[in-house]
Amino acid sequence: MKILNLYAGIGGNRKLWGDEHEVTAVEINEEIAKIYQDFFPEDKVIVADAHQYLLEHFKEFDFIWSSPPCPTHSRLRKAMIGTRYGAKPIYPDMKLYEEIIFLQHYFKGKWVVENVIGYYEPLIKPYKISRHYYWSNFVLDKIKTNVARFSLTGSNKETDKEQIERLEKELDFDLSNYKIDKRLALRNCVEPNVALYIFKMAFKIKQKVLQL
Protein backbone atom coordinates (compact mmCIF):
# COMPACT_ATOMS: atom_id res chain seq x y z
CA MET A 1 0.00 0.00 0.00
CA LYS A 2 1.21 3.50 -0.83
CA ILE A 3 0.91 6.00 2.03
CA LEU A 4 1.36 9.76 1.97
CA ASN A 5 2.34 11.29 5.31
CA LEU A 6 1.98 15.08 5.09
CA TYR A 7 3.57 17.57 7.52
CA ALA A 8 5.42 14.53 8.82
CA GLY A 9 7.46 16.12 11.62
CA ILE A 10 9.64 13.52 13.32
CA GLY A 11 7.03 10.83 12.67
CA GLY A 12 4.88 10.39 15.76
CA ASN A 13 1.92 9.17 13.72
CA ARG A 14 4.19 6.98 11.58
CA LYS A 15 6.02 5.23 14.42
CA LEU A 16 3.91 2.08 14.73
CA TRP A 17 2.79 1.59 11.12
CA GLY A 18 5.53 -0.96 10.40
CA ASP A 19 7.69 -1.31 7.30
CA GLU A 20 5.48 -3.36 4.99
CA HIS A 21 4.07 -0.28 3.28
CA GLU A 22 5.56 2.25 0.88
CA VAL A 23 5.54 5.54 2.79
CA THR A 24 6.26 8.97 1.35
CA ALA A 25 6.76 11.66 4.00
CA VAL A 26 6.63 15.38 3.22
CA GLU A 27 8.16 17.88 5.64
CA ILE A 28 9.16 21.45 4.79
CA ASN A 29 11.74 21.83 7.59
CA GLU A 30 14.92 20.27 6.23
CA GLU A 31 16.40 19.63 9.68
CA ILE A 32 13.24 17.90 10.92
CA ALA A 33 13.01 15.93 7.67
CA LYS A 34 16.53 14.60 8.25
CA ILE A 35 15.55 13.39 11.72
CA TYR A 36 12.48 11.68 10.29
CA GLN A 37 14.70 9.97 7.72
CA ASP A 38 17.05 8.79 10.47
CA PHE A 39 14.12 7.23 12.34
CA PHE A 40 12.47 5.77 9.22
CA PRO A 41 15.26 5.05 6.72
CA GLU A 42 13.03 3.00 4.41
CA ASP A 43 10.57 5.85 3.85
CA LYS A 44 10.87 8.30 0.98
CA VAL A 45 11.31 11.73 2.56
CA ILE A 46 10.63 14.88 0.53
CA VAL A 47 11.45 18.39 1.70
CA ALA A 48 8.60 20.41 0.23
CA ASP A 49 5.36 22.29 0.88
CA ALA A 50 2.97 19.51 1.93
CA HIS A 51 -0.11 21.50 0.92
CA GLN A 52 1.09 21.86 -2.66
CA TYR A 53 2.43 18.29 -2.77
CA LEU A 54 -1.01 16.96 -1.86
CA LEU A 55 -2.59 18.85 -4.74
CA GLU A 56 -0.07 17.56 -7.27
CA HIS A 57 0.35 13.94 -6.12
CA PHE A 58 -2.80 12.77 -4.29
CA LYS A 59 -3.76 10.29 -7.02
CA GLU A 60 -0.56 8.29 -6.43
CA PHE A 61 -1.56 7.02 -2.98
CA ASP A 62 -3.97 4.64 -1.23
CA PHE A 63 -3.95 6.30 2.20
CA ILE A 64 -3.24 9.92 3.14
CA TRP A 65 -2.55 11.32 6.59
CA SER A 66 -2.27 15.10 6.92
CA SER A 67 -1.38 17.09 10.04
CA PRO A 68 -1.39 20.76 8.96
CA PRO A 69 0.23 23.33 11.28
CA CYS A 70 -1.95 23.97 14.31
CA PRO A 71 -0.86 27.24 16.06
CA THR A 72 -3.37 29.50 14.29
CA HIS A 73 -6.23 27.27 15.47
CA SER A 74 -4.93 26.65 18.98
CA ARG A 75 -6.80 27.61 22.14
CA LEU A 76 -3.46 27.93 23.91
CA ARG A 77 -2.13 30.52 21.49
CA LYS A 78 -5.33 32.54 21.70
CA ALA A 79 -5.11 32.48 25.49
CA MET A 80 -1.62 33.97 25.27
CA ILE A 81 -2.83 37.13 23.48
CA GLY A 82 -2.28 40.17 25.68
CA THR A 83 0.11 38.33 28.00
CA ARG A 84 3.86 38.68 28.43
CA TYR A 85 4.38 36.13 25.65
CA GLY A 86 3.47 38.78 23.08
CA ALA A 87 1.02 36.76 20.99
CA LYS A 88 -1.14 38.81 18.61
CA PRO A 89 -4.45 38.04 16.88
CA ILE A 90 -3.92 36.29 13.55
CA TYR A 91 -6.13 34.73 10.90
CA PRO A 92 -6.69 30.96 11.26
CA ASP A 93 -4.91 29.15 8.45
CA MET A 94 -7.70 27.90 6.18
CA LYS A 95 -5.41 25.39 4.46
CA LEU A 96 -6.73 22.99 7.09
CA TYR A 97 -10.24 23.16 5.66
CA GLU A 98 -8.99 23.39 2.09
CA GLU A 99 -7.40 19.96 2.51
CA ILE A 100 -10.44 18.42 4.20
CA ILE A 101 -12.76 19.60 1.43
CA PHE A 102 -10.29 18.62 -1.27
CA LEU A 103 -9.89 15.09 0.09
CA GLN A 104 -13.64 14.70 0.59
CA HIS A 105 -14.34 15.40 -3.05
CA TYR A 106 -11.30 14.26 -5.03
CA PHE A 107 -9.44 11.48 -3.22
CA LYS A 108 -10.70 7.92 -3.74
CA GLY A 109 -8.66 6.25 -1.00
CA LYS A 110 -8.80 6.48 2.80
CA TRP A 111 -7.70 9.71 4.43
CA VAL A 112 -7.25 11.43 7.79
CA VAL A 113 -6.65 15.09 8.62
CA GLU A 114 -5.52 15.83 12.18
CA ASN A 115 -5.31 19.07 14.13
CA VAL A 116 -5.60 20.45 17.64
CA ILE A 117 -8.93 21.22 19.27
CA GLY A 118 -9.43 24.82 18.22
CA TYR A 119 -10.69 27.92 19.98
CA TYR A 120 -13.73 28.14 17.67
CA GLU A 121 -16.50 25.77 16.67
CA PRO A 122 -15.07 23.66 13.82
CA LEU A 123 -16.41 24.57 10.39
CA ILE A 124 -16.60 20.90 9.43
CA LYS A 125 -17.56 18.45 12.16
CA PRO A 126 -14.59 16.30 13.28
CA TYR A 127 -14.11 13.34 15.57
CA LYS A 128 -12.61 14.35 18.92
CA ILE A 129 -9.98 12.05 20.36
CA SER A 130 -7.92 13.08 23.37
CA ARG A 131 -6.46 16.54 22.59
CA HIS A 132 -6.97 16.31 18.82
CA TYR A 133 -9.62 16.69 16.16
CA TYR A 134 -9.68 14.13 13.34
CA TRP A 135 -11.52 14.39 10.05
CA SER A 136 -11.75 11.24 7.94
CA ASN A 137 -13.83 9.38 5.35
CA PHE A 138 -14.29 6.41 7.67
CA VAL A 139 -15.86 6.08 11.12
CA LEU A 140 -13.81 6.71 14.27
CA ASP A 141 -16.16 5.64 17.05
CA LYS A 142 -14.43 2.92 19.04
CA ILE A 143 -11.90 4.89 21.07
CA LYS A 144 -12.59 5.36 24.77
CA THR A 145 -11.07 8.48 26.31
CA ASN A 146 -11.98 8.17 29.97
CA VAL A 147 -8.37 8.31 31.14
CA ALA A 148 -5.56 10.12 29.31
CA ARG A 149 -2.61 7.86 28.51
CA PHE A 150 -0.21 10.71 29.03
CA SER A 151 -0.12 14.49 28.75
CA LEU A 152 1.80 16.12 25.94
CA THR A 153 1.54 19.45 27.71
CA GLY A 154 2.44 18.28 31.20
CA SER A 155 1.89 20.25 34.39
CA ASN A 156 2.77 23.85 35.19
CA LYS A 157 5.41 22.63 37.62
CA GLU A 158 7.25 20.59 34.98
CA THR A 159 10.40 22.19 33.57
CA ASP A 160 11.13 22.09 29.84
CA LYS A 161 13.92 19.57 30.49
CA GLU A 162 11.62 17.34 32.51
CA GLN A 163 8.93 17.54 29.83
CA ILE A 164 11.39 16.63 27.08
CA GLU A 165 12.67 13.64 29.03
CA ARG A 166 9.15 12.45 29.78
CA LEU A 167 7.94 12.81 26.20
CA GLU A 168 11.03 11.10 24.79
CA LYS A 169 10.24 8.14 27.02
CA GLU A 170 6.50 8.07 26.40
CA LEU A 171 6.77 8.58 22.63
CA ASP A 172 9.92 6.43 22.36
CA PHE A 173 11.97 9.01 20.46
CA ASP A 174 15.58 9.73 21.43
CA LEU A 175 16.47 13.25 20.31
CA SER A 176 19.62 13.59 22.40
CA ASN A 177 21.85 13.72 19.31
CA TYR A 178 19.91 16.52 17.61
CA LYS A 179 20.19 20.27 18.09
CA ILE A 180 16.57 21.29 17.57
CA ASP A 181 13.70 22.55 19.68
CA LYS A 182 13.10 19.11 21.17
CA ARG A 183 10.12 20.19 23.24
CA LEU A 184 8.30 21.56 20.20
CA ALA A 185 9.16 18.56 18.02
CA LEU A 186 7.84 16.14 20.64
CA ARG A 187 4.71 18.13 21.43
CA ASN A 188 3.90 18.22 17.72
CA CYS A 189 3.76 14.42 17.64
CA VAL A 190 0.52 12.52 17.31
CA GLU A 191 0.34 9.78 19.93
CA PRO A 192 1.68 6.70 18.09
CA ASN A 193 -0.85 4.28 19.57
CA VAL A 194 -3.75 6.50 18.48
CA ALA A 195 -2.33 6.85 14.97
CA LEU A 196 -1.90 3.08 14.67
CA TYR A 197 -5.45 2.45 15.86
CA ILE A 198 -6.84 4.94 13.34
CA PHE A 199 -4.70 3.47 10.57
CA LYS A 200 -6.05 -0.02 11.27
CA MET A 201 -9.60 1.28 11.56
CA ALA A 202 -9.33 2.77 8.07
CA PHE A 203 -8.90 -0.71 6.64
CA LYS A 204 -11.15 -2.53 9.12
CA ILE A 205 -8.32 -4.50 10.66
CA LYS A 206 -9.63 -6.27 13.74
CA GLN A 207 -8.36 -4.78 17.00
CA LYS A 208 -9.44 -4.17 20.56
CA VAL A 209 -11.09 -0.90 21.53
CA LEU A 210 -8.37 1.62 22.32
CA GLN A 211 -8.47 2.92 25.88
CA LEU A 212 -6.69 6.24 26.33
Q: What can you tell me about this protein's structure?
A:
The protein is of the alpha/beta class. The chain has one domain: Rossmann fold. The chain contains seven helices and nine strands, in the order E-E-H-E-H-E-H-H-E-E-E-E-H-H-H-E. The chain has helices at residues 30-39, 50-57, 75-79, 95-106, 160-171, 182-187, 192-202, and strands at 2-6, 22-26, 44-46, 63-66, 110-116, 127-129, 132-136, 143-144, 210-211. The strands form two sheets. A seven-stranded mixed sheet has the order 3-2-1-4-5-7-6, sandwiched between helices. The protein has a two-stranded parallel ribbon with strand order 8-9. A hairpin with a 2-residue loop joins strand 6 (127-129) and strand 7 (132-136). The radius of gyration is 17 Å and the shape is globular. Mean pLDDT is 90; it is low at 146-150.
Write the layout of secondary structure elements.
Elements: E1 2-6, E2 22-26, H1 30-39, E3 44-46, H2 50-57, E4 63-66, H3 75-79, H4 95-106, E5 110-116, E6 127-129, E7 132-136, E8 143-144, H5 160-171, H6 182-187, H7 192-202, E9 210-211
H-E string: EEHEHEHHEEEEHHHE
How big is the Rg? Answer: 17 Å
User: What oligomerization state is this entry in?
Assistant: single chain
Care to count the β-strands?
A: 9
- Do you know the CATH architecture? 3-Layer(aba) Sandwich
Label the structural class: alpha/beta
Task: Categorize the overall geometry.
Answer: globular
How many helix segments? 7
Largest sheet: 7 strands, mixed
**Share of residues in strands:** 15-25%
Number of domains: 1
Helix content: 25-40%
